[in-house]
Amino acid sequence: MAAFDLIIKGGTVATAADTFNSDVGIRDGRIAALAQDLGSDAAEIINANGKLILPGGIDSHVHIAQPSGPGIVMADDFASATRSAAFGGNTTVMPFCLQEKGQGLRQALKHYHALAEGQCYVDVSFHMIISDPTSTVLGQELPALVDDGYTSFKVFMTYEGLALADKEMLEVFACARETGAMVLVHAENCDAIRFLTEQLEAAGRTAPKYHATSRPIAVEREATHRAISLAELVDVPITIVHVSNGEAIDQIRWARGRGLKVYAETCPQYLVLTEKDLDGLNMEGAKYVCSPPPRDEESQDACWAGLETGVFDIFSSDHCPFRYDDPAGKLTDKGRTSFRWVPNGIPGVETRLQVLFSEGVAKGRIDINKFVALTSTNHAKMYGLYPRKGTIAIGSDADIAIWDPEHEETISQGLMHGGADYTPYEGLKVKGWPVTTIVRGKAVVRDGELVGEADAGEYLPRERSPYAATQGRS
Ligand code: DUC
Ligand code: ZN
Ligand code: ZN
After folding, report:
1. Which of 73, 89, 110, 251 has the fewest Cβ atoms within 10 angstroms?
2. Whole-angstrom Cα distance, residue 354 to residue 361?
3. With contact defined as beta carbons under 8 Å apart, do 54 and 403 qualify?
């Protein structure tokens, strides 16, 4: 029997901490050896000369097959989303299991697991979305689920029907504190958006571009500050997801200045898109409708500064795909009557890493180690998967993306492998591309070709994260 199942030879390994030339020896799905020359005693050898060997991307913020309202269907099921993720250099994705009003969490999970079963090219793990925090949910279901490895959940401060009132937020936060779970917060003020939406509609301003007008920066800044204050009252760490601008970032800096454990995420759309993208001909702007909306160049600069200076712990896609040319997607009949009804979200799981690599690493804004931290290692740490996932170390799962750092490409829909019919990053020129994606020692994508199967991905129960531990301040 060979010493290794696979040796990746001759590449440059980069982790969140180090960059070094090393072969990577893989046995039984795990990393078994790192050395300058591991010889050739392996069932399979991949030559990685001139390539980067990175921990596979972990995208901890994706939406797959999530209920999205009457007549609206997400563009991706688990198979298409995880295939797309693999082509984008990802080895784990974390979608959201939505609790609908009146629904039990176990019931929601049972349905969601059934959708994922045997349909994943990469590993998956679910966050819950809590929309109905009844006493049974918070007192019984959620604590038991955290024990079962569902150690994070999201709450909305926006969207009628999903948004929690402040008292409910406090109750959910208190439950997170008790159970040691991580709470993710979508911070936009629901009432303020409703008010502005009504005003815009009354003035006949219903085109997709007014989606951005209806959710200005103040709406996000206020909710960010409120979420932080509510978390401080309860003494619970929180993660503010999809932060889009400098004023929200200021709230996070302020909280950290007070010693609070407030973590933050930003996404590609806040680095390379702006509000102007929503101003397309006819309904074209609907392709960019997501929340919070892309802002302006000043906000992009603020997000870059946040990435460079450590405000942001994680960089996720917020992949939430709807087809454009489809009445069940962006061109729903109601959506033509007002931006209010255009499904919120854009595809991005396949392009997240290239955008940050090219705009960040290749342009010298961040180094490769920070890139790995932001796109893989910190996701594993924050959500209880580390060190099994998120690094290249002896004993860790052999989840690896092999990158060609010199490969130049223009992003276009023709290159994508998901269920959407457009990419919001069409035409963006990038340098650096993932060529081979390996999940637990087995290639899913090899030299740009799909070689994995849809039942290769595993479901990952997670530990409680030390990032979510209360600070014992109250
Ligand atoms: N929030 C998300 O996190 N994703 C898509 C839509 C939304 O509002
Ligand atoms: Zn959100
Ligand atoms: Zn999201």
Report:
1. 110
2. 10
3. yes
Task: Tell me if 63 CB under 6 Å of ligand 1.
Answer: yes
Q: Which of 196, 193, 105, 198 is nearest to 143 (CA)?
A: 105
User: What DSSP designation does 360 have?
Assistant: I
pTM: 0.98
CA–CA distance, 131 with 237 (Å, rounded to integer): 20
Residues whose CB is less than 8 angstroms from the CB of residue 431 and which lie 6 or more positions away in sequence, other chains included: 357, 358, 362, 405, 406, 407, 408, 409
Q: Strands 4-14 and 52-55, how do they pair?
A: parallel
Å from CA of 80 to ligand 2 middle: 21
> Measured from the CA of 318, which atom of ligand 1 is nearest?
4
Residue of minimum CA distance from atom 8 in ligand 1: 291
Q: Which atom of ligand 1 is nearest to the CA of 242?
A: 3
Q: What is the pLDDT of residues 190-246, one digit of tens each?
A: 999 999 999 999 999 999 999 999 999 999 999 999 999 999 999 999 999 999 999
Q: From the CA of 172, how far away is ligand 1's center (Å)?
A: 19
Contact, 401 vs 48, CB < 8 A?
no
- Residue 20 in contact with residue 393, Cβ under 8 Å? no
Which of the listed residues 131, 242, 267, 349 should we mutate to test ligand 1's pocket, taking the one with most ligand atoms within 8 A of CB?
242
Judged by DSSP in three states, 436 sits in strand
Which helix (H) or strand (E) segment is 226 a member of? Answer: helix 217-234
Place of tokens 């199942």: 5
Helix, strand, coil fractions of the chain, as percent rounded to 5: 35, 25, 45
